[in-house]
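Work Package 4 report. The design task specified in the project plan requires that, given a folded chain encoded as C-alpha cells, an amino acid be chosen for each position. We show below one input record used in the internal validation round.
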C-alpha cells in the first residue's frame, strides 16, 4: 500500500485527508480504500485533531469504485473473486466515517459519482465547488448502489433518491445544495477556507457533546441493514452477466446492450 495515495496534513483544528490518485479521478481501488481507512483511523486517534476534512487532488473528487479493478476481478481466470471482501472493505470505510465520534467535512473539489458520492454522503457536512456534479450511474453499468442508498435517503428523501438511483443522471452543485445533499457551494479558491472555518466552529463544541450528538443522530436516523447486509447487496450484482456486459460496454465506450437504440 502506498502512503502517497492519501495525503495527511494537520491544519488545526482539523486533519485534512487528500485522496491522491488524480490520474484515475481518485477512483476507489483496494489500495486507496485501505490508505483512506488507515489515515482516517490516524486522525480519529490524534488528540490534536478535532475534525476530519476529506478532499481530493486533481479536478475530480472521486469517480467511485475502480471499475477496471472490478472488471479484472470478474475474469474467468481467477480462481476466487474478491468482490465480497472488496464490498465489505468499502462498507466498513463508509461506516467508520459515518459513525466517527469526530465530525467530518467533505470539501468537494470536483465531480463525485457512485462511491464518490457515497463518500460525500457519509460525512457530516459538505461544501462543493460550483463545477462539481453528483450522481449514482451504477444502474447503467448493471450495478446497484446498495451500500450508499441509506445515506442518500437520509439527505434528500425518497423522491430525489429514486430519481438519482433509477435514472443514473447527474445533478449540479446548486441542485445538490437545493435538495440537501451538500450544505454549501463555494468557489475553488474558498473551498478549503470554508471547510476550515466550519472545522473551527465545530471545535467550539465539547468533544463529548459532539460525539454524543452524532451517536444520537445515528440512532434516530433509523437506518436499517447492517454493514454486512449492505455490502452483500452491493456485491451480488457484480457477479451477474448484466454487470459484465455493462462494464464491457463502458470500457468500449458503447451503449450497454439494454440501452435504447440511438442512446
Amino acid at each position: 500500500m502506498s502512503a502517497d495515495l492519501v495525503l495527511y496534513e494537520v491544519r488545526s483544528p482539523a486533519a485534512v485527508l487528500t485522496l491522491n490518485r488524480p490520474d484515475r479521478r481518485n477512483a476507489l481501488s483496494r489500495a486507496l480504500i485501505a490508505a483512506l481507512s488507515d489515515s482516517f483511523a490516524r486522525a480519529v486517534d490524534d488528540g490534536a485533531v478535532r475534525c476530519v476534512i476529506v478532499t481530493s487532488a486533481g479536478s475530480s473528487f472521486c469517480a467511485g469504485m475502480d471499475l477496471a479493478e472490478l472488471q479484472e476481478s470478474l475474469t474467468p481466470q481467477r480462481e476466487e473473486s474478491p468482490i465480497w471482501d472488496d464490498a465489505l472493505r468499502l462498507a466498513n470505510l463508509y461506516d467508520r466515517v459515518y459513525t466517527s465520534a469526530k465530525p467530518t467535512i467533505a470539501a468537494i473539489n470536483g465531480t463525485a459519482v457512485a462511491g464518490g458520492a457515497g463518500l460525500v454522503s457519509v460525512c457530516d457536512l459538505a461544501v462543493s465547488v460550483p463545477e462539481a456534479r453528483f450522481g449514482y450511474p451504477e444502474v447503467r453499468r448493471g450495478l446497484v448502489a446498495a451500500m450508499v442508498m441509506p445515506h442518500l435517503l437520509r439527505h434528500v428523501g425518497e423522491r430525489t433518491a429514486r430519481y438519482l438511483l433509477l435514472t443514473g443522471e447527474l445533478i449540479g452543485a446548486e441542485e445538490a445544495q437545493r435538495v440537501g445533499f451538500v450544505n454549501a457551494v463555494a468557489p475553488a479558491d474558498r473551498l478549503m477556507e470554508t471547510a476550515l472555518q466550519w472545522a473551527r466552529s465545530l471545535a467550539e463544541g465539547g468533544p463529548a457533546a459532539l460525539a454524543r450528538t452524532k451517536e444520537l443522530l445515528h440512532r434516530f436516523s433509523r437506518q436499517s441493514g447492517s454493514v454486512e447486509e449492505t455490502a452483500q447487496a452491493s456485491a451480488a450484482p457484480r457477479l451477474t452477466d448484466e454487470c459484465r456486459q455493462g462494464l464491457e460496454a463502458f470500457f468500449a465506450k458503447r451503449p450497454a446492450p439494454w440501452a435504447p437504440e440511438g442512446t
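The mean pLDDT is 92. Validation will be extended to a larger panel in the next phase.
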